[in-house]
Amino acid sequence: GDSVTQMEGPVTLSEEAFLTINCTYTATGYPSLFWYVQYPGEGLQLLLKATKADDKGSNKGFEATYRKETTSFHLEKGSVQVSDSAVYFCALISGSARQLTFGSGTQLTVLP
Amino acid sequence: GAGVSQTPSNKVTEKGKYVELRCDPISGHTALYWYRQSLGQGPEFLIYFQGTGAADDSGLPNDRFFAVRPEGSVSTLKIQRTERGDSAVYLCASSVTSGGASTQYFGPGTRLTVL
What we know:
B: 115 residues
């Protein structure tokens, strides 16, 4: 079945550091890929998505590129802020499925 | 505009009791999803509605779990004979249509604790 493997956390960075959170997937066909973010005390929010190979999703300075050859969708940001502290989830929808399959999440803490 | 709302925000019950969790999707969204999130894990799919009908209930763990969406809007997740292992955050999401291109918008969740 479909699965998503995320870099284990927690990840702690200093403000303005470069961020990478790794995500790889196993799925049938060509899934759509997502990053969701959960800020403290808030619900899950879509951060970015990509629906076909080589697409780059971007939002709020975050980027991720859909790499079919490596089945990856790594999340990057060039300069993190304290306000980026949250839990980040990689997810996919594949084939005829309509539901999201999530990774286990990566807790990011950014220190001032 | 209003997002997805869920009530109650917290529910504490005793083992063996029956509980109902409610979800109000975004107006006009035809697809509605229920997920369950255990501590330290990502959400896991339970059931998906397209309109009034359950299009996919393959994620329901057993027959103690049931969900309805009688008028194609509000949905209720029902859990009978609750067990301690049912303790989790239950998330509801809705989208304009189903499929990968349609963004799922999540509610804040209902935290269920079974004592």
